[in-house]
Amino acid sequence: MSEFNIDSAFDEGLHSLIVPDEFKAMNEILIVVPYRASSEDDAAYAIFAIKPKLGIVEVFPQKWFTPKKFDIGYEWITRVTRDQDTGRFIGDGIRIGSFELDGNGTNLLRFI
């Protein structure tokens, strides 16, 4: 068995990551994490797109999902995947509808 940790305080963008060899067969691992919303307008969640083969993680703060617009703790994002045709994130959550994000992966394109 292997495991690795990721710093949830990463800023938006690309970061290097040391990943055990056991994970390097995977193309991408998507994780939704609570993010550091310090104001009502800050992202409350982020998507961490881990690319084990490349040893990187790309952080996508969910700028549309803020404490000002959602009741954090009562509503939250639970899972995401990538649309194979467009590469965009699609997901859903607790007490929120299914959604599709824009090409940048940080803003809501539409509820589906």
Spell out the blueprint of helices and strands.
Blueprint: E1 13-16, E2 29-34, E3 45-51, E4 56-61, E5 76-82, E6 89-94, E7 99-101, E8 108-111
Antiparallel strand pairs: 1-4, 2-3, 3-4, 5-6, 6-7, 7-8
Description:
By secondary structure, this protein is mainly β. It has one domain. The chain contains no helices and eight strands. The strands form two sheets. Strands 1-4-3-2 form a four-stranded antiparallel beta sheet, with no helix packed on it. It has a four-stranded antiparallel beta sheet with strand order 5-6-7-8, with no helix packed on it. The radius of gyration is 14 Å and the shape is globular. It starts with 12 loop residues before the first strand and ends with a strand.
Residues in helices, as a percent range = under 10%
Low-pLDDT runs = none
Distance between the termini: 38 Å
Indicate the structural class: mainly beta
The geometry reads as globular
Largest sheet: 4 strands, antiparallel
Please give the number of β-strands. 8
Q: Give the topology string: H per helix, E per strand.
A: EEEEEEEE
What is the average per-residue confidence, as pLDDT, rounded to a whole number? Answer: 95
- How many discrete structural domains? 1
- In DSSP terms (H or I, runs of 4 or more residues), the helix count works out at 0
Kindly estimate the percentage of residues that lie in beta strands according to DSSP: 35-45%
Over all CA atoms, what is the radius of gyration? 14 Å
Biggest sheet: strand arrangement: 1-4-3-2
Tag the structure with descriptive keywords.
single chain, 112 residues, mainly beta, four-stranded antiparallel sheet, 8 strands, 0% helix
